[in-house]
Amino acid sequence: MSEKQEKMRQCAEKLLRDGEAGYVIGWGETRFDDRTTPIFVEDPAGAGAFVWNEYAINSLAKYLLDDKYPDKKIGLFTRGCESRAINRLLKDNQIKRENVYLIGVPCDGKKSDRCTLCRERNPILYDVLLWTPEDDPPPAAGRFDRVKDIEAMSPDERYVYWGETYDSCIRCYACRNVCPACNCRECYADMSKTGFQGKQHSRSDNQIFGVTRAFHVGDRCIECGECERVCPMNLPIMGQTQKILKDINELTGEYECGMDATSENYLGRFDLDDKDEFM
Amino acid sequence: MPVEKSFEPAIVAFCCNWCTYTGADLAGLNRMKYPENVHVIRVPCSGRVNPQFILRAFQKGCDGVMVCGCHPGDCHYSTGNYFTRRRFMIMKRLLEYNGIDPERFHARWISGSEAAKFRDTAAEVSEHVKKLGPNVKYREEFRITESAEAGT
Amino acid sequence: MELKKDKLTEALLLLRGASNVILPVSNDGAPVFKLWDGVAEPCLSANTSLPPKDLLFPRSEKMYDYNVKTGNISEISSNKKQTVFGIRPCDVRSIENLDHAFLESGYTDSYYKTRRDGLTTIALACTETARTCFCDSMGLSPNDAPGADIVLNDRGDAYTVKSNTEKGEEITRLWKSLLSKETGKASKASGSVVCDFKARADKDLPEKLVARFDDPMWDKLSKACLGCGCCSFICPTCYCFDIGRENHGASGTAFRCWDSCMFSDYSRMAGGHDPRPSKKERLRNRYLHKLAYFNLRYGVTLCVGCGRCVDKCPANLDVTRAMDIISEGVRADG
Amino acid sequence: MAESIRAANIEAKNADGRAVNPLLPCMCRVIRITEETPDVKTFRIQTPDGAKPFDPMPGQLAMLSVMGVGEAMFSVTAKDDDWIESSIKKVGQLTEALHSLSEGDLIGVRGPYGNHFPVEDIKGKDLLFVGGGIGLAPVRSLIRYALEHREDYGSLDVLYGSRSYGDLVFKSDIFENWPSRCNVHITIDNAEDGWDGHVGFVPTYLEEKAFSPENKAVVLCGPPIMIKFCLASLMKMGFSKENVITTLEMRMKCGVGKCGRCNIGSKYVCLDGPVFTMSELDDLPDEK
Amino acid sequence: MSRIGVFVCHCGTNIASVVDPDKLIAAARELPGVAYAADYKYMCSEPGQQMIKDSISEHGLDRIVIASCSPRMHETTFRKMLKNTGINPYMLEIANIREQCSWVHVDKDRASEKAVNLMRMAVSKISKNEPLYAQTIPITKKALVIGGGIAGIQAALDIADAGHEVVLLERESSVGGKMAMLDKTFPTLDCSACISTPKMVDVGAHPNITLMTSCEVESVSGYIGNFEVGIKQKARYVNHDICTGCGLCETKCPVKVESEFNLGLSTRPAIYKLFPQAVPSKPIIDKENCRLLKGGKCGICAKLCPLGCVNYEDEDRTITDNFGAIVIATGYQLVDWPSMYGEYGGGRYKDILSGLQFERTVNAAGPTEGHIVRPSDGKEPETVVIVKCVGSRDPNKGKSYCSRACCMYAAKHAHQILEKLPGTRVFIFYIDVRTPGKGYEEFYDQTRMDGAVYVRGRVSKIYEEEGQLVCRGEDSLLGEQVSVKADMVILETAMEPSPGIAELTSLLGAARDVNNWVQEAHPKLRPAETQVGGVFLAGTCQGPKDIPDTVAQASAAAAKVIGLLNKSEMETSPMISAVERDKCSGCGVCVGICPYKAVTLLEIDDRHGAKRIKREVANVNSGLCQGCGACTSACRTGALDLLGFRNKQILEEVDALCL
């Protein structure tokens, strides 16, 4: 672990010293041993602050949107999940590849529930790879198990399940703000005047937020699990987006997002012979 | 909303101008009869129907929602309804997954000549929704969901 | 006086006769405040993940109905009685702080006031602290809640009952038959709990913070912030709100709902100008409000050290870090 | 009706001592609409029983609402025995709704909010009013006040400019009502046909006029960039910041110092403002 | 507040006998924003319209709701009426209380209730209406016809004859297309060249037509009335301005390559005319095969040319021109049967010809000067098998459609063989015989009389045996296997769109159907148009057809073009998509969804904090946008909205229903 950490620090230090990157985004310490926080290091001398341990959990890719027009490249430690998120941002025309320097760091698995669905430990996109790729975890059995469980319920049960779930939602929008697919300049949910989303906290408005967000990101979700990790109320947010992914998988075959930066999203294209259930 | 025996559902039908709206007009021209519950909102193309409109309709108190457009291949705008088909294949499933009864939301292809189909669909959806009763799911009632306030 | 723990349910049922009782119950093991159904076991092992501020300041609250055509406006108010049981010292202090905000500064917020008048607080002193608790750094004690109507201290098989107010006295009278003399038995830890987690909240912190308004540290501190409203919504003392409207034809209802100063549309003006355009300004404003502005206005620090934001921040931001940096006068690095 | 609104004042109690709800608007009527410029209208507002909704001091604010659309805070630009006026520029959804009102339409009103121009402190002084564009709106209330209490103040100068003739507000005041009673200096940014008055930016005109700082208070309102340059000019001319007064705009929701939006440092603009001296602003963080 | 006027039409008794107008009026007066409400017997009548006009001035109305018949009936009428009142014509909404209420409901109370709902929805919607203004766009009076086959030729001639300038663009070095390759045309058997060559000459000589051969479309921008097209003029290496087409250069060229025109049945030099009657009648150099251009030594043609036309330095050039209308007439090609039919030898057997190869063979100007002989040994065949539907009507081979012309030219081929080589045995394997056309059935009958034997069934296998081709198949009428030993086999292969159609249509924004044919705007009512305004269709690019149909469609497309070019400017509907740039993040999902290529990403200058930056936002071309709104539903942030059907307008309608 510390050897890898050392490599990361050295790499960041060199990038900063050579002026290759304006700053590097990675993980740094907090006051708790079992937590890290994203850090942004500009000074080569500060590269020693980067840590790599099983608590380097937060996905870093979304921070690229805070600085969409950088003067210099942004260095970013990139695991499988970050790289898929970056593909997401590239496909959505939100960042430019030449503005980022991706330091590939194959992931050895972190202590987070969000990693249970992980299928890509190794970055699929990087400028440099710091160490040998890890073996990808065995394909997560039952990618859509939770969706199937909910599908098995009756409509009323499903309504109660989600209704109660959304009763607890505090609409802090952490799920949205961390999501690489949520990259609108201004979220529809922040524009209550347009009428799509009420600002009040009611089951109805919370549910509408949940379903709308799912619909907005569903065909572009990279399944990084960050939304659920950040949810202060521990809501099963991916149960919604994964439902959409599951349906797309059933409708058109294998469908995964963020594996490249060019494939058109499911709802952004069509086939003449798409399945048609509407008479 | 009257909830008694005489429950009359409010049903909104988003209809594309070129096919279904024309079909509905033709139903009128032919003096076909169907229940009064179905209210048509005219849109240029079924592709104009943002799935968020459906959520809003349920929230505001519609008991049933229909989205109708030209048959695939017949779209006045050539490809609009292919996107409609994808969007609503996903949206319908998502709504049902969230507990909306399948009978409350329908997408149908009704051409300008299919007046009878419009009539039959309107009648059929009305009847189903009537049986289901008023929709409460997603309905706004400005219920403060704060734990401490629950049940008060 | 003390209340034997086996009498607790009976005591709560007595309360329930006169008002709604809200107490922490277990939700998958985590305590959350809920309207008590008269049956559920109180879950008092730790503080709740959400503060009870919504009892006074609901997430959404109807203000008045109006009719566009007739011009009628009718106020809506809720004057129900609520008793919150098991509220911790930090949250009691948070209510005192909210009182400053809503009842002072010239205007009395009548919605808040009505709810406040109807609220009775029965606090429970802490027997242990969570690892993000730093209330004793913020000038309060986990062992006592002087602002509560009644304070309970866990003494093993009983709670000592201390009444601070007339409302409290009323309850002790109500409980008369259930209360017994204190046995004087020493409890496990009660009364001497301290927080392991510390923050540097020196007396001159507000001035120091304001003085470093333009410090580059705000840039650094805010970089990892996601700009979500998590910290605001789980904070017991955040009280920003928005006013909105829900129309039904000619009639409609104005409501207010929680808002977060971390949101991008919060301070944006109609023409598009935003005095706090990025998360740096927003985070700075939030921290300064908690630790300086409120203090300068009302003489008390708004932050009560409950530690919820430290615990829940998706980016693991830590308000105590800012306090440390300021207090120690060091530059923020990384 | 008027009673209860007046009671929604900072005392927050009505005549019989009953606390009232400061967030509750009162339905009033727009009795006159004046089109000042293509995007500024002045609304004269009265309660249904023919009274003024409340009695504001110069510079104070009113929360105006179009029911079903929203509320926003505007400065009261004039008052009379039985009405108040606000002048509103079309910038967003609510102001657009306000602009679509017709005379006789209902409008929600609450207030007055905030502090006011220090009419007592500046008593006996010469007053110089400097305004740009819609910035004359808040100043107008004080100009009217000073004209009503003419004996309390020394010389009165109004220096006002805008981009073009068409953008000048309160044309009947600045060209007809005021010139006979005080000194009015008007300028527009660029020369245009039919305009034979002064041409040039407000700060330049201000320096040209070379007002003496002696016993003079300045009230300065306008777009931020104009304020910046005017202030520099005034400093050059020897004015002190204590004697330069301005009003601020921030996003406000509640108007009573609760909702949190309009703070600059520990000050709430809706409560402690909108009127500040420039030296007071210097003490506040730069977040306007 | 808006001042809405609500006008309820009785439509005689059509509405009033079921829906109670009084109820509507009473309900309307309760609605916010409604300043006036009235009813009348016939709103669309002169007095009805006058009544609306009078009320507008009397009550200061700024928006009009009319509860009447379908907007499809009278929306235009009422908009026109508003034009003269000072109210913007788009401040109008119509509640359809006739076709969708009084005519379809019986219960008067409930019908009235529904009518009130519909009226309320319209009132709510109109409260969010905004004035819209139609744009007028000038029209460039020049047409581009892409493809110089008979369809393109016909369209170009028709347009040019109507007095408009036309550029006729052809990829090959000569116009003429497939028709020039045919020998005779069914059912009249007139010589194809005899009827098409004059037309080719006409286009070459027409003062309004600019012929551009060896050219391809490289780029297209703009919209109806205003296309800007980049045309690649491929290097010809011969200066056509000077060349007289004497043909001297061709005679001594040392290179011999397979002739495209004769489909490999003969050769041609590297400097060549496509065929003797080519228009323009001037050669080009085939740079792939020219010795000199391939780097070798030669230069004979340059030496021979008396006028010095040969220029080996010639290069591809791009020419940009502006057009008001574009006709796609790119035609078809035959499917590459050898790659599809391994069971027919996959191209190994020389004596299997495609229909077009046979056309060249039987043509007097063809490689065999019209003698029907086997390519392998030059002998006249005694037995000929004609196989129809090769690649057509066979989903397994990729084409499920019927190629339409083959039944007739199979009959024609049989006829020609029997005519030229009497006594030859001709077997025609068929699935069906389709002869819908003037004189077609008669022609088919005649062919059978001539002696052609029709065998119903597909040929499952062709193989060589003792210098002959054994065709095995099932006679499905007899239900038994048959096997014919033939000396020559003619495959009537399927048509498919010519190569490059995908690239061209995507440049133009036109759609293609499942088989890659260009999609017409409406299969019945707009067969000669694409869904892209100003882009029209002629001939087989739209689907298989024979010459009469091709020419008819070409003239139809020409008529459309002429109609467009006759106008000096046109009004576009203002009900199109609009972008709020502040909200748009430039994700581009709309770009792919627009069927008209009306939405593109545009780089704009902006600020990001204090930094000046460039960023991309969606941009709607008002000339291209047809107002379908598909992009708006895909726009997550709502930056795209459809004028006249804005999100807030539709939501208002939804809300109003639920009151």
Description:
- The complex is a heteropentamer of chains A (279), B (152), C (334), D (288) and E (659).
- In chain A, helix 2 links the parallel strand 3 (73-78) and strand 4 (100-104).
- The longest helix of chain A is centred in the first third of the chain and has 16 residues, at 2-17.
- Chain A has helices spanning 2-17, 80-91, 145-151, 155-167, 174-178, 203-217, 226-230, 238-252, and strands at residues 21-29, 36-41, 73-78, 100-104, 128-129.
- Chain A has 279 residues and is α/β, with parallel strands linked by helices.
- Helices cover 32% and strands 10% of the residues of chain A.
- Chain B is α/β, with parallel strands linked by helices and 152 residues long.
- In chain B, strand 1 (11-16), helix 1 and strand 2 (38-43) form a beta-alpha-beta unit.
- The relative contact order of chain B is 0.23.
- Chain E has 659 residues and is an alpha/beta fold.
- Chain E folds into four domains: 4-126, Rossmann fold (3-Layer(aba) Sandwich); 142-331 and 501-565, FAD/NAD(P)-binding domain, CATH 3.50.50; 334-496, FAD/NAD(P)-binding domain, CATH 3.50.50; 577-643, Alpha-Beta Plaits.
- Chain E is elongated.
- Chain B binds chain C through residues 140, 142, 144-152, and chain C through 20, 22, 32-35, 50, 52, 54-55, 58-62, 80, 82, 84, 246, 253, 255.
Task: Kindly summarize this structure in a few lines.
The complex is a heteropentamer of chains A (279), B (152), C (334), D (288) and E (659). With 279 residues, chain A is of the alpha/beta class. Helices cover 32% and strands 10% of the residues of chain A.
